Amino acid sequence: MTDAMGMRSGQLAAAAGVNPQTLRYYERRGLLPEPRRTTGGHRLYPPQAVTLLHVIKAAQRLGFTLEEVAELLQARGHRRHAAGLSERARVKLAEVEARIADLTVIADTLRTALAAGCDDLITCAGEPCCPLPLP
Predict the structure, then answer these.
(1) Domain 1-82 classified CATH 1.10.1660.10?
(2) How far apart are CA 5 and CA 45, in angstroms?
(3) Per-domain residue ranges of the chain
(4) Would you list the DSSP string of 50-112?
(5) Alpha-carbon distances of 7 from 15, 53, 107, rounded to whole Å
(6) How far is CA 110 from CA 82, 98, 114, 122, 132, in A?
(7) How confident is the prediction along the chain (135 residues), in pLDDT tens digits per residue?
């Protein structure tokens, strides 16, 4: 039941594309403020909670951990002492670009191994043409 007071857990979960357990987990982690309760004990979330959940999920898709998302959310009102989105996005971008570079090397090595006909790791490792990185 949606009313002027807010949305219940199931409604919020459906609107945000998450399950109700996620809401409780995010509450415990401090990502989602604890909602008001009805006299019957049901959680009532404000409409803005849908946007907050979408932001959390989008940040996760961009590679931010839940801890990093929590820090970003906490930094909103304390810009002087905490890194904001721009700074954290620069750091995250550098991490992602480093991972892409590593994955590119791995993909190139696997292509070379396939082209060389490597079918057995031990046998291939003994061949001079082995492209697999050995210590």
Answers:
(1) yes
(2) 8
(3) 1-82, 83-135
(4) HHHHHHHHHHHHTT--HHHHHHHHHHTT-TTTS--HHHHHHHHHHHHHHHHHHHHHHHHHHHH
(5) 10, 14, 47
(6) 42, 19, 6, 16, 8
(7) 455 678 999 999 999 999 999 999 999 998 999 999 988 989 999 999 999 999 999 999 999 999 999 988 887 765 555 567 888 899 999 999 999 999 999 999 889 888 888 888 788 877 777 777 766
